[in-house]
Amino acid sequence: MAQKNRPAAEVVKAARSADKITTQKLIDGLLTDFVELHGDRGSGDDPAIIGGVGLLGARPVTIIATQKGETVEDKIATHYGDPEPEGYRKALRLMRQANKFGRPIVTLINTAGAYPGADAEAHGQGEAIAALLEASYDLKVPFIAVIFGEGGSGGALALACADEVWMFENAIYSVLSPEGFASILWKDSQKADEAADLMKLTPNDLLDMKIVDQIISEPTNQDRLVKTLKKKLMLKLADLSELEPDDLIEKRVARFRQF
């Protein structure tokens, strides 16, 4: 479990660290025979969302993840991990596909939020997120969301309406950034550290409030981290797969109604 009493600002810094494990390393370590699937079948393919099908142990799963990119070119193309509507529509397509074929879903989240550009808004950013949220509650397959870095606003929530939500110990989950919170409350983004304390965005804060279900320890050895996460996912998906589809939906809806 994450070390208690860490300053929130320290956790924010760690969640945004350049040393954070990459999305691709997580996918490569968790899955075998991964096949990436592209496009929203409507208007395009957003590289900020990577998704596809692979084997988690012997179990076929659909994985959907945000990615910030590793090169400068990748980071520009993905808006540093902030998806556009096409990305959320791709995620929706893959969730519906998983539901049709009975595959569990795992999402891996590290995003400051949905891309706020004018083009994204013109292409239906709000509608794309809303459609994904609505569809999440009707999925008849197990669904686990893992926040491994930043979990910002509706951009993260769109991928996190799951049966269980997990967080890495060096991760955050909040309605907006500490800088944005400070700018609104005090008209001073320099008070971001103070804002982070008030926002209760750390894994321990969120576990205490039952917003997340589990904290994943984050050792410096990334191979060990992925091995631990893989084992936990395999065990939990096996448990969830024992439930009837209607029970999954009922429990998932009840989980979020309490908030």
Assembly status: single chain
Strand tally, please?
A: 8
Helical stretch count? Answer: 12
**What's the overall average pLDDT, rounded?**
94
Radius of gyration (Å): 17 Å
Instruction: Tell me roughly what share of residues is in helical segments.
Output: 40-55%
Question: How much beta, percentage-wise?
Answer: 15-25%
Structure description:
The protein is globular, with a radius of gyration of 17 Å. It is built from 12 helices and 8 strands. With 259 residues, the protein is of the alpha/beta class. Strands 1, 2, 3, 4, 5, 6, 7 and 8 form an 8-stranded mixed β-sheet that branches.
Keywords:
alpha/beta, globular, single chain, eight-stranded mixed β-sheet, 259 residues
Helices and strands, with pairings:
Layout: H1 8-15, H2 23-30, E1 32-36, E2 49-56, E3 59-66, H3 72-77, H4 85-101, E4 105-111, H5 118-122, H6 125-136, E5 143-152, H7 153-157, E6 164-168, E7 172-174, H8 178-186, H9 192-199, H10 203-208, E8 214-216, H11 222-240, H12 245-257
Parallel strand pairs: 3-4, 4-5, 5-6, 5-7, 6-8
Antiparallel strand pairs: 1-2, 2-3
Helix pairs in contact: 2-11, 4-6, 8-9
Quick structural gist:
Helix content is 45%, strand content 19%. It is of the alpha/beta class and 259 residues long.
